[in-house]
């Protein structure tokens, strides 16, 4: 990590550093990290398809929600925290009040949210409708028991650079369910990092729809840790269904890593990523990754990228449905398979309506 | 003529499948096309329904208007229905949603009033009952997890709902057991009317015992090589297609 940077900061990095420095102590850690390593770019393996450094220009507004500091930034050594977390903590405010009380919480915009769930069912709906500029947010969740459902709906300007990272610990007897609906941005990188302990239940589903000039990157790392120190519970469950569609000029990225530690016997992990290239010039990059150190586990993963099925299209059209509607019908059916069944009807309707609006807008 | 096919040729790259097919069906009649594997039976139904994969010459008229320039959906709205030999499965699309969307699309295209959800449901339930189909099948994703026979019933349900003027049934009898064949045949017979024409495409004579055709045509090597009354089907069943195939070769 302490490698000396070979190249000087880009224009965008300089602007970002100026903002971070102006935040005093708040921005110090992020600034130190950017100074040392720069923004991640295509030479960094985990960011090879999402070049953040090139996306941030010298005229990219940095969406900072903190006040400017009166004191200059103290000098700190860079931490090994992920860049999105550092930026989120520097640029966004804490918005956790009341989240620990259970029930339904709807929040708008980027923020740093912390939630702990011990029992019952907590539902957190986050809507990020970002304007032009770079914003960052985070979620820190601890699910010791009960269930946390997080729905993240990310949309907004095609000039927005949206960085968001969730770090989730799912303990024995806990369940975490996440559904992300992303329409991308100039660059949207939505990371989910889960530490899954024996007996924990995990659902990480997502649907992404990217049109021309938009980029969506869904990156997740799930670590099945094992039964834990004081517990006997084995056999965590992990289910991922990711569906994507891209039109000409749209780029979708899915990186999904599942790491099963030696102690995590009886883990059952399933990961499926399917994407449709709707037009020539659409791009999807996928890197499913399984690393398994335990021997008594079930892990399955599938990754398929293709076009709409001509036979199905012909069948629907032969029944009188116009081609545009037939395509929309197939795409909607394809995408909605990723929506977890437990979501409320109201939320499902909002999600499906947003999908349909995208389909209608782009085929007009 | 409800359907008037004249010197129809259809080819995929490197191979001609229909080689000058001529056939007419007046309104009110049911015709059957029988023929060996590879004769071009399914190609004929696909071409009439509007599949775009073929190089086509010749003419196919419905009510005197050429079908060939029309899209599949325009043909459907004009009253053409093709029952697929292998109906597609559509995961995530509930059967009833699909049929209602299709029916209302056709009605909109014809300038007719759409059915309200209540009217639609009533009609669909009645049709399903006649086909001995459960409500559960209507709620499930279209054809997903259906047996071969259930898929064919779902095709017949759609035919009953759409009330087409020209129905082409491509091997609707294949994959049916005796009971299912009887139910499906009854639903076909129920739709026989002076305003409607039907074309049954089949391998076997079995279906034609239940649905008596007005005429039977023999399709071999892309052409109609013989036509006759219902007796012709029995004769084919007894003698096979050998003599036609030898003549064609």
Structure write-up:
The complex is a heterodimer of chains A (364) and B (249). Chain A has helices at 11-22, 25-37, 52-55, 83-91, 310-317, 323-336, 345-363, and strands spanning 103-108, 112-117, 121-130, 133-143, 146-156, 160-170, 174-182, 187-197, 201-210, 215-226, 237-246, 251-260, 268-277, 283-292, 298-306. Chain A is of the alpha/beta class and 364 residues long. The model of chain A has no long low-confidence stretch (mean pLDDT 94). Helix content of chain B is 40%, strand content 25%. Chain B has 10 helices and 10 strands. The model of chain B has no long low-confidence stretch (mean pLDDT 94). The interface between A and B is medium-sized, with 21 and 29 residues.
Describe the secondary-structure layout:
The complex is a heterodimer of chains A (364) and B (249).
Chain A: H1 11-22, H2 25-37, H3 52-55, H4 83-91, E1 103-108, E2 112-117, E3 121-130, E4 133-143, E5 146-156, E6 160-170, E7 174-182, E8 187-197, E9 201-210, E10 215-226, E11 237-246, E12 251-260, E13 268-277, E14 283-292, E15 298-306, H5 310-317, H6 323-336, H7 345-363
Parallel strand pairs in A: 1-3, 2-4, 3-5, 4-6, 5-7, 6-8, 7-9, 8-10, 9-11, 10-12, 11-13, 12-14, 13-15
Helix pairs in contact in A: 1-2, 2-4, 5-6, 6-7
Chain B: E1 3-12, E2 15-25, E3 30-34, H1 41-49, E4 55-62, E5 65-66, H2 72-77, E6 80-83, H3 95-110, H4 117-130, H5 135-139, H6 148-162, E7 166-170, H7 178-190, E8 197-202, H8 206-210, E9 215-220, E10 223-228, H9 231-239, H10 242-248
Parallel strand pairs in B: 3-8, 3-9, 6-7, 7-8
Antiparallel strand pairs in B: 1-2, 1-4, 4-5, 9-10
Helix pairs in contact in B: 4-6, 6-7
